[in-house]
Specification:
By secondary structure, the protein is an alpha/beta fold. The chain has 13 helices and 15 strands. It has an 8-stranded mixed sheet with strand order 6-14-15-13-12-9-10-11, sandwiched between helices. The protein is globular, with a radius of gyration of 22 Å.
Length: 339
């Protein structure tokens, strides 16, 4: 598990920061002083830094650990009941952490929490409780102040397959093993009436989505500049340029598509433009997922889109953290429209 509470330094002067500004033009972290004086201005840079404020998360105090642990243990017992008493790997690990964190008389083991190493059991427990305390739906920029993923980059890199790509019905799937589980969970809960996929690939993912959804009426629209030539029930492959979605997805046509929607952006250009386009058509309760969002280009465009929409779109951490903190190809970018 990665250290959520790592020290951030100003990219300009190097000082340690408790709170900082992240410039969307420079793509760097800045202290208050350096934010006022740009070092060098890229061509697209504004007159001043286009910056978003962040604050480093604060570790839970022992009192907060105790309160959150009591709440978590109650939820843990309910989870085990739903599982008919059969524990998962994580359940066994959580029980191990709790056994070490709590003494025989029910108080916190202070000696256990004195171990502050980044991968120590005490740090793991603090981080798990901190993420849970944040709640399910969280502001994107609050999440971006946290660091990394719970697994290595190499595990993500190999999760779509190594020498062979994952397939579905003889078509390349281009979904990670982690995201397959996450999408199954999302589809079961949301039961979307309409799925819009930007980026068809070989067509395997659109067909898999249609096969996985339990709602027989759900229609999948998969758009690509070179769509695969496939006919499949309730899946429509459409030719479209993501730089001009309005040329194909007319407003009067979209008005006929029933909600809730699940929109998946699996393309690497015009991300902000596509988010802005769908913003005018999405309704409360719809989901929009930006895949492969860890690239700096995508992070910046997502942040620009959300600057004035922070309360409209929240990160669904039940999904991003279903298999561990950001163990997905959509770290912090599985959004539910809540307003």
């Amino acid at each position: 598990m990665q250290d959520l509470f790592k020290i951030i330094r100003c990219s300009s002067c190097g000082r340690k920061l408790e709170s900082w500004w992240h410039c969307l033009d420079c793509i760097c972290n800045l202290c208050d002083a350096c934010k006022k004086r740009p070092r060098r201005l890229p061509r697209q840079h504004k007159a001043t830094h286009q910056a978003v404020p962040f604050s480093r998360p604060t570790k839970l105090s022992l009192r907060e650990v105790r309160d959150e642990l009591l709440s978590s243990l109650e939820a843990f017992e309910k989870k085990l009941y739903r599982q008919k008493g059969v524990p998962t790997f994580f359940d066994n690990h959580f029980k191990y952490l709790v056994r070490n964190a709590v003494t025989d008389n029910g108080t916190l083991n202070r000696k256990f929490f004195e171990d502050h190493r980044s991968k120590s059991p005490a740090t793991q427990l603090r981080e798990l409780l901190y993420l849970r305390k944040m709640g399910r739906f969280v502001d994107y920029f609050t999440r971006r102040a946290l660091s990394g993923r719970a697994i290595s980059d190499s595990a993500i890199i190999m999760s779509q397959g190594t020498w062979d790509c994952l397939e579905w019905r003889g078509r390349l799937l281009f979904k990670s093993a982690f995201d397959i589980a996450i999408y199954q969970t999302l589809l079961d809960e949301l039961m979307p009436e309409t799925i819009v996929e930007l980026g068809s690939g070989d067509g395997g993912s659109a067909i898999w989505l249609r096969d996985t959804i339990k709602n027989p009426n759900t229609k999948v629209y998969s758009l690509d500049i070179v769509p695969p030539q496939i006919e499949y029930p309730n899946v429509e492959f459409m030719k479209a340029d993501c730089r001009d979605l309005g040329a194909v997805l007319k407003g009067d046509m979209l008005a006929l598509w029933p909600h809730p929607w699940l929109v998946i952006l699996d393309v690497h250009v015009n991300v902000e433009g596509m988010l802005t386009y769908f913003d005018s058509h999405l309704q409360k309760g719809d989901y929009i997922v930006v895949e492969d969002s860890a690239s700096k280009e995508k992070e910046t465009n997502i942040a620009r889109f959300l600057l004035n929409r922070r309360t409209q779109y929240l990160v669904d951490t039940r999904l991003t953290d279903l298999l561990g903190h950001n163990v997905t190809c959509s770290p912090d970018t599985i959004f539910k429209r809540v307003l």
